[in-house]
Amino acid sequence: MTGSVTRRGVDWLLKSGIQQPSGGVARYCRTDTWEYRAVSNEITGYAASALVYLYRVTGQEECLEAALRAGRYLARTAWNPALGSMPFECQAQGELAYFFDLGIVARALVALWRAAGEEEFLVTAAACAKSMARDFRGPSGYHAILTLPDKRPVEGDGRWSRHPGCYQLKAALAWDEVAGAGAGDEYRELYEGAVEGFLATHAAFLEDEPDRERRVDRLHAYCYFLEGLLPQASSPDCAKALGEGMERAGRLLREIRPVFERSDVWAQLLRVRLYAAALGAVPLDRQRAREEAAAIPGFQSLDADRRATGGFRFGRKAGAPMPFVNPVSTVFALQALGLWEEHAAGLFRADVRDLI
User: Fold this and answer.
1) Per-residue pLDDT tens digits for 248-267
2) How many helices (H) and strands (E) does the chain have?
3) Domain residue ranges of the chain, discontinuous segments joined by +
4) Which of 79, 126, 156, 221 is 20 to 30 A removed from 284 (C-alpha atoms)?
Protein backbone atom coordinates (compact mmCIF):
# COMPACT_ATOMS: atom_id res chain seq x y z
CA MET A 1 0.00 0.00 0.00
CA THR A 2 1.38 3.35 -1.03
CA GLY A 3 0.15 6.86 -1.57
CA SER A 4 -0.85 9.89 0.44
CA VAL A 5 -4.37 8.62 1.16
CA THR A 6 -3.00 5.54 2.92
CA ARG A 7 -0.26 7.43 4.77
CA ARG A 8 -2.71 9.99 6.09
CA GLY A 9 -5.15 7.27 7.14
CA VAL A 10 -2.53 5.27 9.01
CA ASP A 11 -1.25 8.42 10.71
CA TRP A 12 -4.78 9.23 11.86
CA LEU A 13 -5.20 5.81 13.44
CA LEU A 14 -1.83 6.06 15.19
CA LYS A 15 -1.55 9.73 16.14
CA SER A 16 -4.95 11.43 16.28
CA GLY A 17 -5.89 10.28 19.78
CA ILE A 18 -8.76 8.07 18.56
CA GLN A 19 -6.92 5.24 20.35
CA GLN A 20 -6.86 6.09 24.03
CA PRO A 21 -3.84 5.46 26.32
CA SER A 22 -5.68 2.38 27.64
CA GLY A 23 -5.53 0.82 24.16
CA GLY A 24 -9.27 1.19 23.66
CA VAL A 25 -10.56 3.03 20.59
CA ALA A 26 -13.30 5.65 20.59
CA ARG A 27 -16.35 5.13 18.40
CA TYR A 28 -15.78 8.38 16.48
CA CYS A 29 -14.62 11.98 16.71
CA ARG A 30 -17.14 14.78 16.18
CA THR A 31 -15.68 17.53 14.05
CA ASP A 32 -18.27 20.13 15.08
CA THR A 33 -17.56 19.89 18.83
CA TRP A 34 -14.16 18.11 18.70
CA GLU A 35 -15.32 15.49 21.15
CA TYR A 36 -14.44 11.81 21.16
CA ARG A 37 -17.22 9.31 21.75
CA ALA A 38 -16.62 6.75 24.52
CA VAL A 39 -14.36 3.75 23.90
CA SER A 40 -16.26 0.91 22.23
CA ASN A 41 -15.16 -2.70 22.50
CA GLU A 42 -16.50 -3.48 19.02
CA ILE A 43 -14.64 -0.52 17.49
CA THR A 44 -11.47 -1.49 19.37
CA GLY A 45 -11.81 -4.93 17.79
CA TYR A 46 -12.13 -3.46 14.33
CA ALA A 47 -9.11 -1.24 14.95
CA ALA A 48 -7.02 -4.17 16.18
CA SER A 49 -7.87 -6.21 13.07
CA ALA A 50 -7.07 -3.25 10.83
CA LEU A 51 -3.77 -2.49 12.52
CA VAL A 52 -2.66 -6.11 12.09
CA TYR A 53 -3.56 -5.88 8.41
CA LEU A 54 -1.79 -2.52 8.03
CA TYR A 55 1.30 -3.88 9.75
CA ARG A 56 1.40 -6.75 7.25
CA VAL A 57 1.04 -4.54 4.18
CA THR A 58 3.11 -1.50 5.28
CA GLY A 59 5.70 -3.04 7.59
CA GLN A 60 5.22 -0.22 10.13
CA GLU A 61 6.07 -1.55 13.58
CA GLU A 62 3.89 1.17 15.12
CA CYS A 63 0.84 -0.55 13.62
CA LEU A 64 1.62 -3.83 15.38
CA GLU A 65 2.36 -2.03 18.65
CA ALA A 66 -0.98 -0.21 18.49
CA ALA A 67 -2.76 -3.47 17.60
CA LEU A 68 -1.23 -5.19 20.61
CA ARG A 69 -2.36 -2.36 22.91
CA ALA A 70 -5.88 -2.73 21.56
CA GLY A 71 -5.80 -6.51 21.95
CA ARG A 72 -4.55 -6.36 25.52
CA TYR A 73 -7.30 -3.89 26.36
CA LEU A 74 -9.87 -6.33 24.97
CA ALA A 75 -8.40 -9.38 26.69
CA ARG A 76 -7.56 -7.81 30.06
CA THR A 77 -10.04 -4.96 30.55
CA ALA A 78 -13.07 -5.52 28.31
CA TRP A 79 -13.44 -9.28 28.78
CA ASN A 80 -15.17 -10.09 32.09
CA PRO A 81 -14.19 -13.62 33.13
CA ALA A 82 -16.69 -13.68 36.00
CA LEU A 83 -19.55 -13.05 33.57
CA GLY A 84 -18.02 -14.99 30.70
CA SER A 85 -18.92 -12.08 28.44
CA MET A 86 -17.97 -8.60 27.25
CA PRO A 87 -20.09 -5.45 27.48
CA PHE A 88 -20.73 -3.01 24.67
CA GLU A 89 -18.76 -0.33 26.53
CA CYS A 90 -16.82 -0.87 29.74
CA GLN A 91 -18.00 2.40 31.29
CA ALA A 92 -21.66 2.14 30.28
CA GLN A 93 -24.51 2.21 32.77
CA GLY A 94 -26.89 -0.73 32.47
CA GLU A 95 -24.47 -2.95 30.59
CA LEU A 96 -25.45 -4.78 27.43
CA ALA A 97 -23.66 -7.50 25.49
CA TYR A 98 -24.03 -7.75 21.70
CA PHE A 99 -23.67 -10.96 19.70
CA PHE A 100 -22.18 -8.95 16.84
CA ASP A 101 -19.57 -7.21 18.98
CA LEU A 102 -18.31 -10.47 20.46
CA GLY A 103 -17.79 -11.86 16.97
CA ILE A 104 -15.84 -8.81 15.81
CA VAL A 105 -13.66 -8.92 18.93
CA ALA A 106 -13.04 -12.66 18.59
CA ARG A 107 -11.91 -12.25 14.97
CA ALA A 108 -9.55 -9.43 15.99
CA LEU A 109 -8.02 -11.53 18.75
CA VAL A 110 -7.48 -14.48 16.40
CA ALA A 111 -5.75 -12.11 13.96
CA LEU A 112 -3.52 -10.85 16.77
CA TRP A 113 -2.73 -14.41 17.86
CA ARG A 114 -1.71 -15.23 14.29
CA ALA A 115 0.48 -12.12 14.10
CA ALA A 116 2.08 -12.15 17.55
CA GLY A 117 1.60 -15.67 18.92
CA GLU A 118 0.39 -14.48 22.33
CA GLU A 119 -1.79 -17.23 23.77
CA GLU A 120 -4.08 -14.94 25.78
CA PHE A 121 -5.50 -13.62 22.53
CA LEU A 122 -6.61 -17.05 21.32
CA VAL A 123 -7.92 -18.01 24.76
CA THR A 124 -10.07 -14.86 24.92
CA ALA A 125 -11.23 -15.28 21.31
CA ALA A 126 -12.43 -18.80 22.09
CA ALA A 127 -14.20 -17.52 25.21
CA CYS A 128 -16.02 -14.90 23.11
CA ALA A 129 -17.04 -17.56 20.59
CA LYS A 130 -18.31 -19.77 23.40
CA SER A 131 -20.41 -16.94 24.83
CA MET A 132 -21.95 -16.27 21.41
CA ALA A 133 -23.00 -19.91 21.10
CA ARG A 134 -24.09 -20.46 24.69
CA ASP A 135 -25.61 -17.21 25.89
CA PHE A 136 -27.29 -15.80 22.77
CA ARG A 137 -29.02 -18.88 21.38
CA GLY A 138 -32.73 -18.31 20.88
CA PRO A 139 -35.68 -20.36 19.65
CA SER A 140 -34.84 -19.63 16.00
CA GLY A 141 -31.33 -18.24 15.76
CA TYR A 142 -29.34 -15.94 18.03
CA HIS A 143 -30.50 -12.95 20.06
CA ALA A 144 -28.89 -9.65 19.11
CA ILE A 145 -28.47 -8.20 22.63
CA LEU A 146 -28.44 -9.47 26.21
CA THR A 147 -28.52 -7.62 29.51
CA LEU A 148 -25.62 -8.13 31.90
CA PRO A 149 -25.12 -9.76 34.31
CA ASP A 150 -28.35 -11.78 33.97
CA LYS A 151 -28.02 -12.40 30.19
CA ARG A 152 -31.64 -11.85 29.30
CA PRO A 153 -32.64 -10.97 25.72
CA VAL A 154 -33.39 -7.31 24.97
CA GLU A 155 -36.42 -6.58 22.81
CA GLY A 156 -35.80 -4.70 19.57
CA ASP A 157 -36.88 -1.12 18.98
CA GLY A 158 -36.98 -0.95 15.19
CA ARG A 159 -33.26 -0.43 14.59
CA TRP A 160 -31.66 -3.28 12.64
CA SER A 161 -28.78 -3.57 15.13
CA ARG A 162 -31.17 -4.43 17.95
CA HIS A 163 -32.82 -7.33 16.14
CA PRO A 164 -31.47 -10.68 14.94
CA GLY A 165 -30.79 -10.71 11.22
CA CYS A 166 -28.61 -11.80 8.34
CA TYR A 167 -25.95 -9.19 9.23
CA GLN A 168 -25.02 -11.46 12.16
CA LEU A 169 -23.24 -13.72 9.68
CA LYS A 170 -20.24 -11.34 9.77
CA ALA A 171 -19.92 -12.03 13.50
CA ALA A 172 -20.39 -15.76 12.92
CA LEU A 173 -17.15 -15.70 10.92
CA ALA A 174 -15.52 -15.80 14.35
CA TRP A 175 -16.71 -19.39 14.79
CA ASP A 176 -15.07 -20.43 11.53
CA GLU A 177 -11.84 -18.69 12.49
CA VAL A 178 -11.52 -20.00 16.05
CA ALA A 179 -12.17 -23.46 14.62
CA GLY A 180 -9.35 -22.88 12.14
CA ALA A 181 -7.12 -21.90 15.05
CA GLY A 182 -7.80 -25.23 16.76
CA ALA A 183 -10.55 -24.25 19.22
CA GLY A 184 -12.89 -27.06 18.13
CA ASP A 185 -14.71 -28.32 15.03
CA GLU A 186 -18.07 -27.66 16.67
CA TYR A 187 -17.51 -23.95 15.99
CA ARG A 188 -17.20 -24.52 12.27
CA GLU A 189 -20.49 -26.40 12.38
CA LEU A 190 -22.07 -23.40 14.08
CA TYR A 191 -20.81 -21.12 11.32
CA GLU A 192 -22.09 -23.45 8.60
CA GLY A 193 -25.48 -23.61 10.31
CA ALA A 194 -25.61 -19.80 10.39
CA VAL A 195 -24.89 -19.64 6.66
CA GLU A 196 -27.72 -22.05 5.93
CA GLY A 197 -30.15 -20.15 8.14
CA PHE A 198 -29.40 -16.69 6.78
CA LEU A 199 -29.43 -17.80 3.15
CA ALA A 200 -33.08 -18.58 3.71
CA THR A 201 -33.95 -15.16 5.16
CA HIS A 202 -31.63 -12.49 3.76
CA ALA A 203 -33.71 -11.41 0.76
CA ALA A 204 -36.23 -9.48 2.86
CA PHE A 205 -33.65 -7.59 4.95
CA LEU A 206 -33.43 -4.49 2.74
CA GLU A 207 -37.08 -4.44 1.76
CA ASP A 208 -38.17 -4.45 5.42
CA GLU A 209 -37.14 -0.76 5.66
CA PRO A 210 -39.18 1.65 3.50
CA ASP A 211 -37.38 4.83 4.63
CA ARG A 212 -34.59 5.64 2.16
CA GLU A 213 -32.07 7.02 4.66
CA ARG A 214 -32.55 4.10 6.99
CA ARG A 215 -32.23 1.76 4.05
CA VAL A 216 -28.66 3.08 3.56
CA ASP A 217 -27.90 1.99 7.12
CA ARG A 218 -29.34 -1.41 6.22
CA LEU A 219 -27.09 -1.51 3.16
CA HIS A 220 -24.14 -1.33 5.54
CA ALA A 221 -25.56 -4.23 7.54
CA TYR A 222 -26.46 -6.21 4.42
CA CYS A 223 -22.85 -5.98 3.27
CA TYR A 224 -21.94 -7.70 6.54
CA PHE A 225 -24.08 -10.63 5.40
CA LEU A 226 -22.30 -10.72 2.04
CA GLU A 227 -18.92 -10.64 3.80
CA GLY A 228 -20.01 -13.49 6.03
CA LEU A 229 -20.68 -15.70 3.00
CA LEU A 230 -17.12 -15.51 1.68
CA PRO A 231 -15.65 -18.65 3.28
CA GLN A 232 -18.43 -20.60 1.54
CA ALA A 233 -18.21 -18.66 -1.73
CA SER A 234 -17.59 -21.83 -3.75
CA SER A 235 -21.03 -23.15 -2.78
CA PRO A 236 -23.56 -22.53 -5.59
CA ASP A 237 -26.13 -21.13 -3.16
CA CYS A 238 -23.62 -18.72 -1.62
CA ALA A 239 -22.25 -17.66 -5.01
CA LYS A 240 -25.80 -16.94 -6.18
CA ALA A 241 -26.55 -14.89 -3.05
CA LEU A 242 -23.29 -12.97 -3.46
CA GLY A 243 -24.03 -12.11 -7.08
CA GLU A 244 -27.61 -11.09 -6.47
CA GLY A 245 -26.74 -9.28 -3.24
CA MET A 246 -23.96 -7.20 -4.80
CA GLU A 247 -26.25 -6.23 -7.66
CA ARG A 248 -29.04 -5.22 -5.26
CA ALA A 249 -26.74 -3.31 -2.91
CA GLY A 250 -24.86 -1.56 -5.71
CA ARG A 251 -28.06 -0.39 -7.34
CA LEU A 252 -29.56 0.95 -4.11
CA LEU A 253 -26.31 2.66 -3.10
CA ARG A 254 -26.27 4.62 -6.36
CA GLU A 255 -29.99 5.39 -6.33
CA ILE A 256 -29.99 6.83 -2.81
CA ARG A 257 -26.58 8.53 -3.04
CA PRO A 258 -27.99 12.05 -3.66
CA VAL A 259 -29.94 11.79 -0.39
CA PHE A 260 -27.51 9.89 1.85
CA GLU A 261 -24.34 7.89 1.32
CA ARG A 262 -22.05 6.13 3.77
CA SER A 263 -18.35 5.77 3.08
CA ASP A 264 -18.25 2.33 4.67
CA VAL A 265 -20.84 0.96 2.24
CA TRP A 266 -18.72 2.01 -0.77
CA ALA A 267 -15.72 0.28 0.82
CA GLN A 268 -17.58 -2.84 1.91
CA LEU A 269 -19.09 -3.37 -1.51
CA LEU A 270 -15.72 -3.01 -3.25
CA ARG A 271 -14.10 -5.46 -0.83
CA VAL A 272 -16.84 -8.04 -1.38
CA ARG A 273 -16.56 -7.67 -5.16
CA LEU A 274 -12.81 -8.26 -5.08
CA TYR A 275 -13.03 -11.24 -2.73
CA ALA A 276 -15.93 -12.86 -4.57
CA ALA A 277 -14.08 -12.56 -7.88
CA ALA A 278 -10.76 -13.80 -6.49
CA LEU A 279 -12.53 -16.78 -4.91
CA GLY A 280 -14.11 -17.65 -8.25
CA ALA A 281 -17.69 -17.07 -7.08
CA VAL A 282 -18.79 -14.01 -9.11
CA PRO A 283 -16.98 -12.34 -12.03
CA LEU A 284 -15.76 -8.85 -11.20
CA ASP A 285 -17.93 -6.01 -12.48
CA ARG A 286 -14.99 -3.78 -13.33
CA GLN A 287 -17.01 -0.67 -14.08
CA ARG A 288 -18.81 -0.80 -10.74
CA ALA A 289 -15.56 -1.61 -8.92
CA ARG A 290 -13.79 1.38 -10.52
CA GLU A 291 -16.67 3.67 -9.52
CA GLU A 292 -16.50 2.44 -5.93
CA ALA A 293 -12.72 2.80 -5.74
CA ALA A 294 -13.01 6.34 -7.14
CA ALA A 295 -15.71 7.33 -4.62
CA ILE A 296 -13.87 6.26 -1.46
CA PRO A 297 -10.99 8.80 -1.26
CA GLY A 298 -13.44 11.72 -1.34
CA PHE A 299 -14.53 10.86 2.19
CA GLN A 300 -11.06 11.35 3.70
CA SER A 301 -10.88 14.40 5.97
CA LEU A 302 -8.27 17.01 5.06
CA ASP A 303 -9.10 19.15 8.09
CA ALA A 304 -6.01 20.79 9.57
CA ASP A 305 -6.82 19.55 13.07
CA ARG A 306 -4.89 16.35 13.85
CA ARG A 307 -8.01 14.83 15.43
CA ALA A 308 -9.53 14.60 11.96
CA THR A 309 -6.95 14.83 9.22
CA GLY A 310 -6.49 11.52 7.44
CA GLY A 311 -9.51 9.85 8.97
CA PHE A 312 -12.56 9.06 6.86
CA ARG A 313 -15.91 10.73 7.38
CA PHE A 314 -18.94 8.59 8.08
CA GLY A 315 -20.93 9.93 5.17
CA ARG A 316 -22.77 12.73 3.39
CA LYS A 317 -26.36 13.89 3.43
CA ALA A 318 -27.54 15.82 0.38
CA GLY A 319 -23.88 16.13 -0.58
CA ALA A 320 -22.81 17.75 2.72
CA PRO A 321 -20.21 15.93 4.87
CA MET A 322 -21.47 14.69 8.23
CA PRO A 323 -19.41 15.74 11.29
CA PHE A 324 -18.13 12.29 12.23
CA VAL A 325 -14.64 10.94 11.56
CA ASN A 326 -14.98 7.27 12.14
CA PRO A 327 -12.49 4.42 12.78
CA VAL A 328 -14.63 1.80 11.02
CA SER A 329 -15.12 4.00 7.96
CA THR A 330 -11.37 4.64 7.93
CA VAL A 331 -10.21 1.05 8.19
CA PHE A 332 -12.75 -0.27 5.69
CA ALA A 333 -11.72 2.45 3.24
CA LEU A 334 -8.00 1.83 3.67
CA GLN A 335 -8.43 -1.89 3.16
CA ALA A 336 -10.70 -1.48 0.15
CA LEU A 337 -8.21 0.83 -1.54
CA GLY A 338 -5.34 -1.46 -0.62
CA LEU A 339 -7.07 -4.51 -2.08
CA TRP A 340 -7.93 -2.54 -5.23
CA GLU A 341 -4.27 -1.62 -5.60
CA GLU A 342 -3.25 -5.27 -5.13
CA HIS A 343 -5.85 -6.37 -7.65
CA ALA A 344 -4.60 -3.88 -10.24
CA ALA A 345 -1.06 -5.20 -9.76
CA GLY A 346 -2.19 -8.83 -9.97
CA LEU A 347 -1.10 -9.45 -6.39
CA PHE A 348 -4.41 -9.90 -4.53
CA ARG A 349 -4.76 -13.23 -2.73
CA ALA A 350 -8.14 -13.72 -1.07
CA ASP A 351 -7.68 -14.84 2.54
CA VAL A 352 -10.99 -14.14 4.29
CA ARG A 353 -9.22 -14.07 7.66
CA ASP A 354 -7.63 -10.76 6.58
CA LEU A 355 -11.01 -9.11 5.93
CA ILE A 356 -11.44 -6.42 8.58
Assistant:
1) 999 999 999 999 999 999 99
2) 12, 12
3) 4-354
4) 221
